[in-house]
Amino acid sequence: AAVPTGVLALLGTLLWAPWRALHGAPLVELSGDQDFQLFLHKNLEFTRKIKGDVAALQRVVCDTFQLCKEEELLLVRQDLGIAQAPLEQCHSRAFQAEACFSQIRDGLRAYHGSLAAVLELLPGHASLVETLQLDTANLSSNIQQQMEDLGLATVTYPTESGGPLPAFPSRFHHQVGGFFILANFQRFLETAYRALRHLARL
């Protein structure tokens, strides 16, 4: 069933508001849409699992290469050209459900590709990286399918991080690149998770 226009407008009002202001807001229309609630809860759980796997890989990078603190690596980061996948549509005044979920889907696709660099970096942890890649692809596909099922139009946004990975000039640059791919992915997941969680609680 298509999501009523009023529900999409209500989502927009909620998601650009400060997160703390969302509690207690009336969501009679949205809470009555069982398909949409199921969509939120399923993808919330999946996002939580992916966040845990990214955190596990961040610990591996820290333990293996002693790359643990982002602020110590910012100068190297400037040389790498690794961009953060955008998610501004999930908390902007012009919020639309189609735009937010499309950006989540597109960002997941971009990070799925970027994880190839992490796989090369951590061959001893290939199974964890490959599981993360598979889960990332599945979550992206789930969102695409759920959007179609809910009658949400799909929107494609150009993403800076969607192109080929940079050529790392040294092994150290590759290690730092892997560090920032994971750090960016974790931030991306936090934003996506926060949007889904606060909608699902209402």
UniProtKB/TrEMBL annotation:
<dbReference type="GO" id="GO:0008083">
    <property type="term" value="F:growth factor activity"/>
</dbReference>
<dbReference type="GO" id="GO:0005130">
    <property type="term" value="F:granulocyte colony-stimulating factor receptor binding"/>
</dbReference>
<dbReference type="InterPro" id="IPR030474">
    <property type="entry name" value="IL-6/GCSF/MGF"/>
</dbReference>
<dbReference type="Pfam" id="PF16647">
    <property type="entry name" value="GCSF"/>
</dbReference>
<dbReference type="InterPro" id="IPR040117">
    <property type="entry name" value="GCSF/MGF"/>
</dbReference>
<keyword id="KW-0339">Growth factor</keyword>
<feature type="signal peptide">
    <location>
        <begin position="1"/>
        <end position="24"/>
    </location>
</feature>
<dbReference type="GO" id="GO:0006955">
    <property type="term" value="P:immune response"/>
</dbReference>
<dbReference type="InterPro" id="IPR009079">
    <property type="entry name" value="4_helix_cytokine-like_core"/>
</dbReference>
<keyword id="KW-0964">Secreted</keyword>
<dbReference type="GO" id="GO:0045639">
    <property type="term" value="P:positive regulation of myeloid cell differentiation"/>
</dbReference>
<comment type="similarity">
    <text>Belongs to the IL-6 superfamily.</text>
</comment>
<keyword id="KW-1015">Disulfide bond</keyword>
<dbReference type="GO" id="GO:0005576">
    <property type="term" value="C:extracellular region"/>
</dbReference>
<dbReference type="InterPro" id="IPR030473">
    <property type="entry name" value="IL6/GCSF/MGF_CS"/>
</dbReference>
<protein>
    <submittedName>
        <fullName>MGF factor</fullName>
    </submittedName>
</protein>
<keyword id="KW-0732">Signal</keyword>
<dbReference type="GO" id="GO:0005125">
    <property type="term" value="F:cytokine activity"/>
</dbReference>
<keyword id="KW-0325">Glycoprotein</keyword>
